[in-house]
Please model this.
Amino acid sequence: MSLPALNPTVLPVLLIEDEPAVMAYVQAALERSGYPVVCCESGVEALRLLETGSFLGIVSDMRTPGGVDGGQVHAWLKVHRPDLASRIVFITGDIANDETVATLRETGAPCVEKPFRVQQLIDVVSKTMGKVQ
Model:
């Protein structure tokens, strides 16, 4: 008697994005590719979720309201959730900003520049967090 193969539940990706249209686009792209998604609109909200939640990784806008940006989320991860510090992907429309460039250099995290194609995002997410399905 053989047992069916177990398909372990895939942990969700935490999506930090304050623009509703971009959030919906990224969420749909990730979910169509098999990644469950938990959405939040700020770095502050993300840190609350990260304190107790389990996530495959994070897709974060570089700039979010509330005083905690993507770089600060990454810094928090390095201290409190080092298992996730290498599983963050930034998305930004502000790639030419010196502060953004410095954050990307410091973190070493991959960045997908807005506007981007779905496949471009999924390729970076799968390389950073692993493929699902």
Remarks:
- The chain is about 40% helix and 15% strand.
- The longest strand covers residues 57-61.
- The chain has one domain: 13-128.
- The two ends are 25 Å apart (CA to CA).
